[in-house]
Amino acid sequence: MTTTSSPPARVDVTQYAGKDTLIRLIRQEYKQAFDMLVAASEQEWHAQTPCDMWEVRDMAGHLLDAAYCYLGYFKQGEYGWPTEEPRGMRAYGEGLGKSALEYRDVYRWEVLGRLDACTELLFSYFDRLTEDEWAGRLVPHKWVGPVPAFMMAAFQLMDYSVHNWDLRKALGKEAFVDLEASDTLVPFMFGLMQICFAPELAEGLDLTVDVQISTTDDEHWTVRIADGALTFAPGAPERADASFTFPCHEFCLDVYQRLQGGQASGDQAAIDNFRKLFFTI
After folding, report:
1. What is the pTM of this model?
2. CATH number of this structure's domain 16-176
3. pLDDT 10s digits, 192-210
4. N or C: which end of the chain has fewer CB atoms below 10 A?
5. Are 242 and 265 contacting, i.e. CB atoms less than 8 angstroms apart?
6. DSSP 47
7. Does the keyword Isomerase apply (predicted)?
8. What is the rounded distance in angstroms from the CA atom of residue 141 to the CA atom of residue 166?
């Protein structure tokens, strides 16, 4: 299926009023992932995914590993136990890549049973978050450090939305990212862009970039590269060195470096320099 219709108006899921929307989308995306994993033939279980280190079976291992870790993070925060220094996103890709491979030694149907059990328990944690806890409770995260509780749910939506695209590609299905999910994730994609920014590649650069996302609001965002840092804000810049226009679902895949999406215009050197400023996770 190709998602071509317009999504409903975006709900701000960083606010408690958006909790039900975010949890509904996570459950939707999880069910689609789980159903594909269950339905995969034994040959498809070993099919290569767009993630270099992973076959389909490793995608199941990763999703289980992530849910298991998140359950631990919630308990760690609940008890007020010490946390390690954040390991940073540069180590994230290889670290999670290797963790997923450890489940190759576990029987397929046990992996899926564990995945379903851990995920339902994790979703119950999200369900129980109160209005004060949604943005006010900090939950440890070994890669990025403590984050508001709603970010744990947002991370899950990122994971399932993009990995569902990976699974569809690996299984020979029409690959897409759900339109409402990808639209909801647009503001978070700029945060991901920021934490995957490689400052050593931006030495001497001073760029202003206009990123236009084709949604119901046809929105613009300004991204600035200056003094070895990346900042972003909603709204179009007065002047841009480069401009990029994306459908919202393609923007998510571009930020995750699954493909080079969108249409670029402006100074070609600025376009090329901006494209090279991010490491892969």
Report:
1. 0.93
2. 1.20.120.450
3. 999 999 999 999 999 999 9
4. N
5. yes
6. P
7. yes
8. 24
